[in-house]
Amino acid sequence: MIDKWIFNEVVPPEMADQPLRFLLHQYWLIPKHLIFSLRHNQRVLVNGQYLPVNFPVHTGDRIQMTFLPQDFGQPYPEVLVDSAATIEVLYEDRNLIVINKRRGDKTHANQPGEVGATMNHLAAYLQVEDIPPYMIHRLDQETSGAIVFAKNPAVVPILVANIAKKVIQRTYLAWVSGTNLESIGKVNLPIGLDPDDKRKRKVNGPHAVNAVTHYQVIREEKGFSLLSIQLETGRTHQIRVHMAAINHPIVGDPLYNPNDQYEYLLLHSWKLGLVMPFTNRLQTVIAPIPSHFLRFEQFY
């Protein structure tokens, strides 16, 4: 298992003459507790020398950061290994990996000793590098498509922060029942628990929190609409709850559209607009349209 993580980065022009602390925290989104560890143990170097974090850096300066296991609460997630045969890699580098999650697979196991989840399969794929996967976000079990995992603990808070701030854009595809939606629409309805079913969520249910979903109609066919959807917030089952609340439930949704005849939930994580850790370079990743979507288009 890797016993330290070393990053060698270069100060970009937009950070010229800014304090090192500002570069680390505001631009690279490294949490303050990690900056404290780097500073306290002099594990952040500028052009090979330790520099107090209040000192300015300059364009082209070389920044080296060394993170150790004790810097993290869970440096090595315990993920049981399953077969890697199902893993379809959409993008990969030294810091992260985006895979095409299969419909029907959980994102992670829920019980001790359980395997068969996406993380178990990914753990097998990454085993050759002797590293575990680090979870960044989840997809519902019946949702297919692009999902990102970290490959080291240092970039986990960066990726999580970028998702929370909507710097990472996630676009979904969904077939919904009904037509005549606004061509571009917004659903702004708080989502809480469903007191009648622990599996579900409900608009204005107990402990409701703000939830906003944006959608655009791509096309309409024979009583159904294909939508491109983006989340402004990330609540459990948000897209499914919101679409059902405006009387356009997702096709094949067993919880929120139980009378629908199609056997698969037609919700797909289609595009990820990733802002890469440290470089802030934009990387767009697209998950191919899955076969159960294509079968539905033939079905109707």
Folded structure, characterized:
The chain has 300 residues and is of the alpha+beta class. Among the domains are: 5-71, Structural Genomics Hypothetical 15.5 Kd Protein In mrcA-pckA Intergenic Region, Chain A, CATH 3.10.290.10; 170-269, Pseudouridine synthase, CATH 3.30.2350. Helix content is 17%, strand content 29%. The strands form three sheets. Strands 5, 6, 7, 8, 9, 10, 13, 14, 15 and 16 form a ten-stranded mixed beta sheet that branches. Strands 1-4-2-3 form a four-stranded antiparallel beta sheet. A two-stranded antiparallel sheet has the order 11-12. Strand 13 and strand 14 form a beta hairpin. The N and C termini lie far apart (51 Å).
The number of distinct β-strands equals: 16
What is the level 1 CATH name of the domain at 170-269?
A: Alpha Beta
Note the beta-strand portion: 25-35%
Tally of helical runs: 6
Shape: globular
Name the poorly predicted regions: none
Helix and strand composition category: alpha+beta
Rounded to an integer in angstroms, the radius of gyration calculated over CA atoms is 22 Å
Q: Judging by the overall fold, what is the CATH architecture of the domain at 170-269?
A: 2-Layer Sandwich
Helix coverage percent: 10-25%
Terminal CA distance: 51 Å
The main sheet comes to: 10 strands, mixed
The H-and-E topology, N to C, reads as: EHHEEEEEHEEHEEEEEEHEEH
Mean pLDDT: 94
> What's the CATH topology label of the domain at 170-269?
Pseudouridine synthase
CATH superfamily of the domain at 170-269: Pseudouridine synthase
Catalytic activity: a uridine in RNA = a pseudouridine in RNA
GO molecular function: catalytic activity, acting on RNA; pseudouridine synthase activity; RNA binding
Domain Pseudouridine synthase RsuA/RluA-like: 95-245
Protein name: RNA pseudouridylate synthase
